[in-house]
UniProtKB/TrEMBL annotation:
Source organism: Xaviernesmea rhizosphaerae
InterPro entries linked to this entry: NAD(P)-bd_dom_sf, SDR_fam
PANTHER family, per the entry: SHORT-CHAIN DEHYDROGENASES/REDUCTASES FAMILY MEMBER
Family: Belongs to the short-chain dehydrogenases/reductases (SDR) family.
Protein's name according to its UniProt entry: Short-chain dehydrogenase
One protein family per Pfam: adh_short
Length: 275
């Protein structure tokens, strides 16, 4: 028996990169997958890869910023695959680079809307369904700027810090029914998003350190976060509900340290250094 047999997982941004890897890991663990992204062709390819390995996948092309479509889509998932046990919000946008006065306002707000509103929309539908059934897990992906300043990526950073706090707030309203929310930082992964940062003129101007990071070999394989999320889905890290886990973590060491992390209120978005 596989660790995720008889479970249903929803993965957003599942058409490529980290999201595709997350979906593949869930399927290999035995889960039935719902794949959400705007690109129909990309999620169809992810579904094909899952099915070629004997898994089951339902591709749904929709925009997570459209609340009505999200509600319709998740209702269809439950009709077609069964009750949702795991929701992974992997969708994301980072297209506005530079000081805020150099950023196109619509692009800046678009990054925030996709990242934060999209996560709100999926959680708003999935969380009460999980609560009504007495269990479930939600994983929200965060990233650069979540816990530190990111001057030339302010829209992305602001949205990811907001998702971290949103994850904590959500978890505090759902854990009484064994619905646990987690934030996961996959680390610096070479994706279509980072290719835009590397190759656009704005990216070259305002994110000049990025090529050097990749040249130094700082390129976290997407399967690190995917493997972590598969273990979250199986319940290994339930004591860390409401907290941040990272793709670079040594998962065995993290599992050993969970009690200490909780006791220290670690891996959380908190003020420090206040008298």
């Amino acid at each position: 028996m596989k660790p995720l047999d008889n479970t249903v997982a929803v993965v957003t941004g599942a058409g490529r990169g980290i999201g595709r890897e997350i979906a593949l890991h869930q399927a290999r663990g035995g889960a039935r997958l719902a794949l959400i992204a705007r690109s129909e062709a990309e999620i169809a390819e992810t579904a094909r890869l899952i099915e070629s390995e004997g898994g089951q996948a339902l591709p749904l092309a929709l925009d997570v910023t459209d609340g009505a479509r999200v509600e319709e889509g998740l209702a269809h998932v439950e009709e077609a695959l069964g009750p949702i046990d795991l929701l992974v919000n992997n969708h994301g946008a980072f297209r506005a680079f530079g000081p805020i006065w150099e950023c196109d306002p619509e692009t800046w707000w678009g990054d925030v809307e996709i990242n934060l509103r999209g996560t709100f929309n999926t959680c708003r539908i999935a969380a009460p369904l999980m609560r009504a059934r007495g269990g479930g897990r939600i994983v929200n992906l965060v990233g650069g700027g979540t816990g530190n300043s990111f001057p030339h990526g302010s829209g992305y950073a602001a949205s990811k810090a907001a998702i971290m706090r949103f994850t904590e707030c959500l978890n505090d309203t759902t854990r009484d029914k064994a619905v646990y929310a987690f934030a996961v930082d996959p680390g610096l992964v070479r994706t279509q998003m980072t290719e835009l940062q590397l190759n656009s003129q704005a990216g070259k101007t305002y994110l000049p350190d990025l090529p050097g990071l990749f040249a130094e070999g700082i390129n976290i394989p997407p399967d690190r976060a995917a493997a972590l999320i598969a273990e979250i889905a199986a319940g290994r890290f339930d004591p860390l509900n409401g907290r941040l886990l990272r793709g670079v973590d040594d998962r065995d060491a993290l599992a050993r340290d969970m009690e200490a992390v909780v006791a220290a209120d670690g891996r959380a978005l908190r003020f420090t250094g206040l008298g």
